[in-house]
Predict the structure.
Amino acid sequence: MTTDQDDLDFQHACSLVGEFLYFFATIESTMDAAIIKLFSLKEETADIITANMDFSRKVNVLKSALLDQLELTDPLNKKTFDGTFSQIREINDARLVVAHSIFEPSGDGVRFKRTVARDGLKKQNPEWSALRFSNYKLQMVAMEHNLLAYVATLRPYHPSLDFSDPRNSQYLGYL
């Protein structure tokens, strides 16, 4: 039989997990909007394409497009850019724990129970405090802010068949 305190602790743990997933989803939604802009996708096809791309591929596409378009000659701007995308990859690693683990209340936070079967079997029981969740939230808000600034500068990609461009010379054989 559970007590009222057990129920409150469980609700608090669910709240922490739900809030983490919400802020992660805002980052992914911003990346989806960037991909839609980059490829000038129509509304009826945009969701099909972005929903079928895993998170890592979205990161790769967006980072590659931005590197192609931005002029990151200033070392500080390059460091900020690289840091943003490094943090996005790291937060995805944290998301894997949150999204793919059973969890329970632990102190003021959450204890996850996760089994990973890659290169052997690993059982993990990480505990995250409420402070850790709060720090992740602040990081994700900052990441989304940085992403939005980059997306604002993003131009749609329009491929060109300029045969003076060596990337397009392979098409000459088809003419």
About this structure: The chain has one domain: 4-156. The first strand starts at residue 102 and ends at 106. The mean pLDDT is 89.
